Automatic annotation (TrEMBL):
Source organism per UniProt: Streptomyces caeni
Keyword Zinc: no
Gene3D superfamilies, per the entry: Peptidase S8 propeptide/proteinase inhibitor I9, Peptidase S8/S53 domain
Active site: D154, H187, S369
Coiled coil regions in record: none
Name of this chain's protein: S8 family peptidase
Classification via InterPro entries: Peptidase_S8/S53_dom, Peptidase_S8/S53_dom_sf, Peptidase_S8_Asp-AS, Peptidase_S8_His-AS, Peptidase_S8_Ser-AS, Peptidase_S8_subtilisin-like, Peptidase_S8_subtilisin-rel, S8pro/Inhibitor_I9
Domain spans labelled Peptidase S8/S53: 150-399
Family: Belongs to the peptidase S8 family.
Length: 426
């Protein structure tokens, strides 16, 4: 398992498997496998729809000949079309697809993609933390918006996503200061959707629907950045601490907590977070995905933040009866990749989480990066009804409202069972 938490670069909190690893070609009708925090994109890897040009030749003969030709090139044909369309769908390599696209008898070669039932879905994570029971979230499809502000310190946000209430008047790009904080990676947009996707009857809904999302880009389109760029983002959030209630940091690097806000070991990142928390901003942070003690990862190790580990939950319900979906793990248990330890404050769903993605789309990802924004949404719900609450009060309230109704010790590497986020009372 690669260690994405580099000593010099702050990278996204990715875990088991290499980021961006393509899923294997799925069997017809089954969803693709996904590595931790890799996207189960709408595109189906290795499967293509080939449309033929209409000719005076008999459609049956034309399709049969085309299928035979594709087979000689190594394609595996799954189905043929002879009426609404002349063509076929087949599994093949991208090289074969490109070669077929140049065939004079081929009209187009299009990668197959998943299609979902219309209407809004309550993601399993949102269901598991009981956001649908929160009176403040008021999830009923009526597009009631939670009155709070959350900064997503990440790869930016898809500024035009129709399912997100992005605060366009705010935001900052610390990676490329002359450009808007627009997400070209997908991670930040996914995090944003879990926090606050709109309750508008389409797509998905977040824990705190319609919350104002401030895009703060500190990571590149490749998902990596520097400590200085993250401090730039925290500096911007602190500048706007009179408006921003919560900030989410689903990122990390190697480091420790000196117990003195970074003044002893010269940790500038820690100093910045301490000063921002002192201004009233609650920080939610991913624990990391090395299945190791979070005490060796910052900002997860800092006492001033809310550090979140990941729960494997596949059906949005307790009991351990859910079947694995996008990756293999045991339902209702500590995720097999998640960091653990005394610095972890809460656990939240972080496996196979469906949320918003680039170009107005949706995707499924796994990681503690997906767990932390559930807690950010919970913190936003609390701040919406307790606007003067301090970060420590917010943390204590979330922990007190949490449940121990999940299977343990499972993959947890320490002797402490952290409370599972629950927001029904907020």
């Amino acid at each position: 398992m690669p260690n994405i938490f580099g000593a010099t670069l702050l990278a996204l909190a990715l875990a088991a498997g290499t980021a961006g690893t393509a899923a294997t070609s799925p069997a017809a009708g089954s969803p693709p496998a996904a590595t931790t925090e890799a996207v189960k994109a709408d595109k189906i890897p290795g499967r293509y729809i080939v449309a033929l040009k209409e000719t005076t030749k008999d459609a049956g003969d034309q399709v049969t000949a085309a299928v035979e030709h594709a087979s000689t090139m190594g394609a595996v044909v799954h189905d043929v079309y002879r009426h609404a369309l002349h063509g076929y769908v087949a599994s093949m390599s991208s090289r074969t697809a490109a070669a077929l696209a140049k065939d004079p008898q081929v009209q187009s070669v299009q990668q197959d993609q998943w299609v979902y039932a219309t209407g809004q879905a309550v993601p399993t994570g949102v269901d598991r933390v009981d956001a649908d029971l929160s009176p403040t979230a008021a999830i009923d499809g009526a597009d009631t918006r939670v009155d709070a502000d959350v900064a997503v310190i990440d790869t930016g946000i898809d500024l035009n996503h129709p399912d997100l209430n992005v605060y366009r008047a705010g935001g900052k790009n610390c990676w490329m200061p002359l450009l808007p904080p627009s997400d070209l990676h997908g991670h930040g947009t996914h995090v944003a959707g879990t926090i606050g996707a709109l309750d508008n009857g389409t797509g998905v809904v977040g824990v705190a629907p319609g919350v104002r999302l401030w895009p703060v880009q500190v990571l590149s389109p490749f998902g990596a950045g520097s400590t200085s760029s993250v401090i730039c983002g925290i500096d911007y959030v602190t500048q706007n601490a009179d408006r921003i209630d919560v900030a989410n940091l689903s990122l990390g690097s190697a480091g420790t907590d000196d117990g003195n806000c970074g003044r002893t070991n010269g940790d500038a990142l820690h100093q910045a977070i301490c000063n921002s928390v002192a201004r009233g901003v609650t920080y939610t942070v991913a624990a990391g995905n090395d299945h190791a003690d979070a005490a060796q990862t910052v900002p997860a190790a800092y006492d001033e933040v809310i550090t979140v580990s990941a729960l494997a939950d596949f059906d949005g319900k307790p009991g351990g009866l859910g079947r694995s979906t996008c990756r293999t793990d045991q339902d209702d248990t500590f995720a097999d990749f998640s960091n653990y330890g005394r610095d972890v404050d809460l656990i939240a769903p972080g496996v196979c989480i469906r949320s918003t993605y680039l170009n107005g789309g949706y995707a499924t990802m796994s990681g503690t990066s997906m767990a932390a924004p559930h807690v950010a949404g919970g913190a936003a719900l609390y701040r919406a009804t307790h606007p003067t609450a301090s970060p420590q009060t917010v943390k204590s309230a979330l922990q007190a409202a949490g449940s121990l109704d999940w299977s343990w010790p499972s993959q947890d590497g320490d002797a402490v069972k952290e409370p599972l986020l629950g927001v029904s009372a907020f």
